Amino acid sequence: MSKMRLLLAAGIALTLGQSAVAQEEITDTAADYEEGGRWYTQHGIPTFKVEEDGTVDFATFSGFRRYNAECFQCHGPDGAGGSYAPALQESVMRLDYYEFQDIVVNGKQEVNAAQNLVMPALGQNPNVMCYLDDIYTYLRARGTDTVGRGRPAKKQDKPEAFSEAEDACMGS
Ligand code: HEC
């Protein structure tokens, strides 16, 4: 099964109901282990790793680029929020990882007398879905103020395992 399908299946499983994720899992961003060219917390949630000299892990840098390509026009620069859509650097510190994925896959619509805001369902867009963990870790790095605004100055070289996972997801 492709990664894209797995993500879609995860989205469906979510809609069918899942117990709330412990608060500690949401606030924990500490990198614990590396797998497939990216870092995870001890809870198995994708996370960032930034060296003391400011070098960011490749996935986080990729997330910065993908965020700017796919989310920026509504959510504003650097995850900081726009006039149309909320600051995702804050959303990712409040929502859990699965809620975040669910909203991106299935979309969200706030309709009331004052506004009619639509978060599009992006679950069919490989340029979003194949890089969603990257976008997530970038936003978490922003939300904890580990990475500043703008393009990260230094990044890790692209790990081979990262390229392989990317190619498998994009089907190239
Ligand atoms: C066409 C504009 C648009 C684009 C593009 C877009 N969003 Fe949104 N998004 C919105 C709007 C509007 C909302 C608020 C919807 C609501 O509150 O019902 C939203 C809400 C969200 C939320 C929920 C935030 C919260 O605090 O509840 C998440 C998560 C999210 N978007 C992620 C993303 C990601 C990740 C991308 C890029 C891959 C993206 N969005 C691209 C318009 C957009």
For the biggest β-sheet, the strand order reads: 1-2-3
Beta-strand segment tally: 5
- The ordered H/E elements are HHEEEHHHHEEHHH
**What is the makeup of the main sheet?**
3 strands, antiparallel
Helix content: 40-55%
Globally, the shape reads: globular
Number of domains: 1
Identify the bound ligands.
heme C
Q: Report how far the terminal alpha carbons are from each other.
A: 15 Å
Rg over CA atoms: 16 Å
The overall pLDDT, averaged over residues, is 90
What is the number of helical segments per DSSP (H or I, 4+ residues)?
9
In percent terms, what proportion of residues is strand? Answer: 5-15%
Q: By helix and strand content, what is the structural category?
A: mainly alpha
Give unreliable regions as ranges.
none
Region (Disordered): 146-172
Signal peptide: 1-22
Organism: Silicimonas algicola
InterPro entries: C-typ_cyt_methanol_metab-rel (IPR022411), Cyt_c-like_dom (IPR009056), Cyt_c-like_dom_sf (IPR036909)
Could you please describe the fold and organization of this structure?
There is one protein chain. The chain is mainly alpha-helical. The chain has one domain. A 3-stranded antiparallel sheet has the order 1-2-3. A two-stranded antiparallel ribbon has the order 4-5. β1 and β2 form a beta hairpin. α5 packs across α8. The longest helix is centred in the first third of the chain and has 13 residues. The protein starts with a helix and ends with a helix. The structure holds heme C. Heme C binds next to α4, α5, α6, β4 and β5. Keywords: Heme, Iron, Metal-binding, Signal. GO terms for molecular function: electron transfer activity; heme binding; metal ion binding. This is Methanol metabolism-related c-type cytochrome. InterPro entries: C-typ_cyt_methanol_metab-rel (IPR022411), Cyt_c-like_dom (IPR009056), Cyt_c-like_dom_sf (IPR036909). Pfam families: Cytochrome_CBB3.
